[in-house]
Amino acid sequence: DDRIVDWMLEHLARTQPEYIRMMKDPANELKLAALKMRLKAYAEQTKKDLCGPPAREQIQFQLAQIDSFEGRPIAFTETLTMEEFNRLIQDYLENSLAEIDVALKEPKEKFNYTEESLTAVLMVGGSTRVPAVWKIVERRLPNTPLWGIEKGINPDEIVAMGAGIVAADKDPESDIVSKTILVDV
Furthest-apart CA pair in the chain: how many Å? Predict the structure, then answer.
């Protein structure tokens, strides 16, 4: 979301340079923060709309007034393509590959597992709704099926369940953990 906000601000800097100069003045720090918060709501919805389902190739921003400057409305009309969105998050995608190696390290060392030992990868967490995340994991683990929403997995709920399991593993004697978290899991 923050990357989309930055992208929006870059476009505004080209179309409304005086406005952005004024907003970036240290005296207007709170105004800029408020603008970023407003833009973040649009950015989050745009990300959701772009990534689907169904995934789209582009999303058109048509915001008639995100703010006003010198008595006139500041509009934002731009198109964010999936290709541009993927470029904006490319470093996050590359970091995902490193996280796969981290996740596989312990099973490889302790249990002599290999990538061929994997029967499936559960795609969990909100970012797994981004098609490029699926593509990068598919390229990294080409012989392993990826399971997500189509298999009845809610990416957000499974993260919470995993957190409950980890908490119970750290303190299995805790009444709170065993009675609340494990019952839910």
Answer: 68
**In the predicted structure, residue 181 carries a pLDDT above the cut 60:** no
**3-class state of residue 65 by DSSP:** strand
Token pair for 109: 């060392």
Task: Say if pTM beats, i.e. exceeds, 0.85.
Answer: no
Yes or no: say if 22 and 28 are a contact pair by the CB < 8 Å rule.
yes
Separation between Cα atoms, residue 81 and residue 96, nearest integer Å: 22
Q: Which helix (H) or strand (E) holds 88?
A: helix 82-88
Q: Residue 77's beta-bridge partner residues?
A: 62
Which 8-state DSSP code applies to residue 79?
A: E
Residue 53 sits at the vertex; the CA angle it makes with 50 and 57, to the nearest 5 degrees, is 35
> What pLDDT does 168 receive?
73
Q: Are 143 and 157 contacting, i.e. CB atoms less than 8 angstroms apart?
A: no
